[in-house]
Design brief:
It contains 1 helix and 4 strands. The chain has 78 residues and is of the alpha+beta class. The strands form 2 sheets. Strands 1-2 form a two-stranded antiparallel sheet. A two-stranded antiparallel ribbon has the order 3-4.
Amino acid sequence: MGIIYGEKIRSTVVDIVCDICGKSTRNKFVMTYEYATLYANWGYWSRKDDTKWEYYFCEKCSDKIFEFIKPQLIPHNS
């Protein structure tokens, strides 16, 4: 039969934008993205039954978020 060629369609990430301020997380100097992610996956039998959350934050906004969250975290023994 030989080689069969077909068209392959693929998605490419062109930017990752902060979900708070709307700014790009792209580092122009090294052409990478610098961001924090908040991801939650609520399973069955939870009050959020099979809900998924995914948010992206730039460095400046993630600093503000962790400034609020950090005092509430339980310290881990390492």
